[in-house]
């Protein structure tokens, strides 16, 4: 299936890599795992002169991660920016959580260090699962057992790729 860049919502992480915002007054840097911590150290250094809090988080999303970020979101005020550094799966989840907490997309800056894993949202049972299946391939939904086509669309609200029945026309 051919998809052009204008008709897909799959992030182009290199083009979206924005680690500086001249309008930001204070920043929260959230880094996931050791690889991201190294990159985050440079980002923190580049924001000297601003108020910066650095959250060194584990390599995978957890309830504790969510709780820490929710406290940051609750304390955010005008001029706050969130910089998320890590694997695509954690970056999308952190971005999704920030949007749900009231942040706007312009306040969230991203830096993705890898995209081997992705979350897929099943439109049939609304279950979200994690997979290493590439975009454009099939991934079985663990809940409803439907073979899902991992589509070229990312819901930034859910932090997941869209998955739908691969052979729906034939059913």
UniProtKB/TrEMBL annotation:
<feature type="domain" description="Dimethylamine monooxygenase subunit DmmA-like C-terminal">
    <location>
        <begin position="119"/>
        <end position="163"/>
    </location>
</feature>
<keyword id="KW-0503">Monooxygenase</keyword>
<protein>
    <submittedName>
        <fullName>Dimethylamine monooxygenase subunit DmmA family protein</fullName>
    </submittedName>
</protein>
<dbReference type="InterPro" id="IPR048037">
    <property type="entry name" value="DmmA-like_C"/>
</dbReference>
<dbReference type="GO" id="GO:0004497">
    <property type="term" value="F:monooxygenase activity"/>
</dbReference>
<dbReference type="Pfam" id="PF22289">
    <property type="entry name" value="DmmA-like_C"/>
</dbReference>
<keyword id="KW-0560">Oxidoreductase</keyword>
């Amino acid at each position: 299936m051919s998809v052009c860049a204008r008709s897909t919502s799959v992030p182009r992480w290199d083009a979206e890599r924005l680690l500086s915002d001249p309008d930001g007054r204070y920043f929260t840097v959230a880094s996931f795992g050791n690889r991201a911590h190294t990159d985050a150290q440079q980002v923190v250094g580049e924001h000297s002169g601003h108020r910066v809090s650095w959250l060194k988080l584990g390599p995978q999303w957890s309830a504790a991660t969510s709780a820490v970020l929710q406290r940051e979101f609750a304390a955010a005020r005008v001029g706050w920016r969130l910089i998320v550094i890590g694997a695509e799966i954690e970056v999308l989840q952190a971005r999704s959580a920030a949007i749900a907490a009231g942040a706007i997309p312009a306040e969230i800056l991203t830096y993705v260090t890898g995209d081997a894993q992705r979350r897929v949202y099943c439109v049939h049972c609304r279950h979200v699962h994690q997979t290493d299946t590439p975009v454009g391939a099939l991934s079985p939904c663990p809940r409803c057992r439907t073979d899902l086509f991992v589509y070229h669309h990312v819901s930034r609200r859910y932090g997941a790729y869209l998955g739908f029945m691969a052979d729906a026309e034939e059913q």
